[in-house]
Every structure is written in structure tokens, then in C-alpha cells.
Specification:
five-stranded mixed sheet; 7 helices; globular; about 375 residues; alpha+beta; six-stranded antiparallel sheet
């Protein structure tokens, strides 16, 4: 009996290790570095050294003039968080290098023929009021937030390399007095729930991209409207949107477009930053498994790439009464039955497990049965 127990335990350990390796491979393959390691290789990998765990501790807070402020070492500035909807102990200051996250203020776009981007490079594509634009992942990685105009709408194209979360938000919001303000977003250099925080330059409020929600500041509680996007290969986006333009790689920061500032981060067996609701839990999937997620009416369904990889061909599924097709590609993406683009999210698995403790997980082996769920 003891021998059988040991065999079962060993089998579980091996299965866990396989999932971890597959999860890391999926992240690297998705973000293009797995396909072109010569472009992004770091010397320490060749010497077999373990990556350094990122340093993170609660951000410094101070009180003055009757208000509460949080300090950003990244920007060397304090931000007023007197009005807030978050526990300040959950906001962390990490070991981020400002030189790796430069701000790009002037955006120039070129035609597909003028861009040197490879077909398999990932892009975030948006179509708004008939105008189509693509933003290379290579550029989103270091710049984090790009403020642009598309289809006559002021938008923020956001990407968090710590959670591989892309978003496209409307930058115009209503203030408490009813007046409208157009926001300019930038990297705050602080961390919340495993992801980078943004701030807006107009009100200096703090924002968490996965939800488009203001956590602290003058706009506390405000949520940004978001636009559908596709996070796909350049080849797929061009084929679906032949009239697109693409953000030019020709900037003064071009050297940063061959590096991923968070490359080592995905290599850890355990989530290297403290995230409320994740530490100490048992999960079916590794924290760093990339997943597509559909969110409607307070519910979510996740389609981990590790699971999709087991299925041949496109996947037809239903979530909350909505029929969707998951197109197998690098990376995969969802549409409606007619091929139209739908609202969806993308990110590492721990995001969905924490935000939706009962999140449904797509199961390919029994398509007629209810999807399984991840319980706390």
C-alpha cells in the first residue's frame, strides 16, 4: 500500500513539472522569443544560472496636509491616494529599471509593406469606426501604454508584460463634476495583484489595467470603457484587415524592441510576487499558463492555451448564451460564429483564478458536459 502511495505521489509531481514546463514554453512561444531565441537570449541562460527573483515590498506611504500619498521610486514622485478603494499594503514597489520602460509620445504609422515586422510577430490590433491599426508586441513590451487616436476616438493601447495582458481603452472619462477629461496614461512603476499599475497625467490617479479600474486618486472607482481587439500574429491581422496601418518600429528606442524586460519573470515555478488569493491555493494549472478569457455578467470562462493545444482544428463553444469560435493559431483568438471580433481578455492563468474563484475552464474531452471550474 505504501509503495502504491509513493508511486501516485511521484506521478502527481511529474505531472506538475510537465505542466510547469509547458506553461513556460507557451509563454515564450506566444511572445515570439521561443521562436527566435537568438534575438532575445540573455547570457545568464547559457551558463545555467537561476534567474533572480524580483524584489518587491510594500510601497512607501506618507501623510501630509491631511492626505495620504504613495511613493513611486520609478518616477521619483508621490501620488495622492487619499481617496482609494484598495488596501495600500497591496501596492508594491518593485525592482524596475526606468530605462527599460521608456515613454513613447510621438506615434508614427506605416503601411504593412513598409514594416519590417515578421509574419509571426504578435500584434495588438484594433478596428474603431472603420479605421484599423496594429501595435507590435515588441513595442508594447517596453512602452506599456500608448496613447493614440483611432477612428476619431482617443484610445490607450495597454500591455502589461508581467501578466501578458493587452487592453484597448477609451481615454475620455467623466469626472465627479460631470465634465469630460481625456487622459494620458503612463507606467507608474508600482505593482498591484501581480501586474503593473498605470497613472494618468491629468489627475494622477492610479489604474489597474486588467479591469480598467481606477484604484486611487481623484477618479477613484471610475472604469474605462474598452474596445474589442485582436491579439494575434501580424500575418493573421493583415489577412483579416488588409487596410491596416502599423506602428513604426523606427524610433529612438528601437534597441528596446529586441528585449523583453520581464523575460526571466515567467521562469519561476511559483508566482514570484505576492497576490492575494493565489498564495497557498492548489490550482490545476501553473500560474504562468497563458489563457484566453471571456467575461460576461460577472462570470468568466478560461481557455488555457495548454488545453487548446490538445485540440485539432478550431473550437466551437458556448459561453453565457454566446456562441464563439476559438481559432487555433499562434496565438489563438476568439470570434463569433460569423468571424466577427468579440470582447475578450488575455493573460496569465493566475489572473482568472484570483478574480473569478469559480472560473469555468474549457474541457475538450467532453464538449457536451459543463466546463469544470477552479474553486478556492
Amino acid at each position: 500500500m505504501l509503495r502504491r502511495t509513493k508511486v501516485i505521489i511521484a506521478a502527481y509531481c511529474i505531472a506538475g513539472l510537465i505542466l510547469l514546463v509547458l506553461g513556460i514554453g507557451m509563454v515564450l512561444q506566444f511572445t515570439h522569443w521561443f521562436q527566435h531565441p537568438e534575438e532575445f537570449a540573455d547570457d545568464h541562460h547559457h551558463h545555467g544560472e537561476e534567474p533572480e527573483k524580483p524584489e518587491a515590498s510594500p510601497a512607501t506611504t506618507l501623510t501630509r496636509d491631511g492626505g495620504t500619498f504613495v511613493s513611486s521610486p520609478f518616477l521619483d514622485r508621490d501620488f495622492d491616494v487619499t481617496d482609494r478603494s484598495v488596501d495600500l499594503r497591496q501596492i508594491l514597489a518593485g525592482s524596475l529599471n526606468p530605462d527599460k520602460f521608456p515613454i513613447l509620445e510621438k506615434l508614427q504609422f506605416v503601411s504593412p509593406d513598409e514594416s519590417p515586422l515578421g509574419d509571426q510577430d504578435a500584434v495588438l490590433g484594433a478596428r474603431i469606426n472603420g479605421e484599423e491599426k496594429a501595435y507590435p508586441l515588441r513595442m508594447l513590451n517596453p512602452h506599456i501604454a500608448l496613447n493614440d487616436l483611432c477612428g476619431g476616438k482617443e484610445i490607450a493601447v495597454v500591455y502589461d508584460p508581467l501578466t501578458i495582458t493587452p487592453k484597448v481603452f477609451e481615454r475620455s472619462v467623466r469626472q465627479a463634476d460631470g465634465s469630460a477629461v481625456v487622459l494620458m496614461f503612463a507606467n507608474l512603476g508600482l505593482i498591484y495583484n501581480g501586474g503593473l499599475l498605470l497613472y494618468d497625467k491629468e489627475t494622477e490617479s492610479l489604474w489597474w489595467p486588467p479591469e480598467g479600474r481606477c484604484l486611487a486618486g481623484k477618479l477613484n472607482g471610475v472604469r474605462l470603457n474598452d474596445y474589442p481587439f485582436l491579439f494575434v500574429s501580424w500575418k493573421v491581422w493583415k489577412e483579416r484587415h488588409p487596410g491596416t496601418t502599423i506602428l513604426s518600429l523606427d524610433t529612438e528606442f528601437a534597441v528596446h524592441y529586441r528585449q523583453n524586460p520581464a523575460e526571466q519573470y515567467y521562469m519561476f515555478e511559483e508566482l514570484p510576487l505576492p497576490v492575494e488569493g493565489w498564495q497557498g491555493r492548489t490550482s490545476r494549472l501553473p500560474w504562468n499558463a497563458p489563457a484566453i478569457a471571456l467575461e460576461r455578467n460577472g462570470r468568466a470562462k478560461a481557455y488555457p492555451l495548454l488545453v487548446l493545444d490538445k485540440v485539432q482544428g478550431d473550437i466551437h463553444d458556448t459561453f453565457d448564451g454566446m456562441k464563439v469560435v476559438i481559432h487555433k493559431d499562434a496565438p489563438s483568438y476568439p470570434t463569433d460564429e460569423r468571424g466577427g471580433e468579440v470582447h475578450y481578455s488575455f493573460g496569465l492563468w493566475f489572473l482568472w483564478a484570483v478574480r473569478y474563484p469559480g472560473v469555468e475552464i474549457y474541457e475538450p474531452d467532453s464538449p457536451k458536459a459543463p466546463a469544470t471550474s477552479e474553486e478556492q
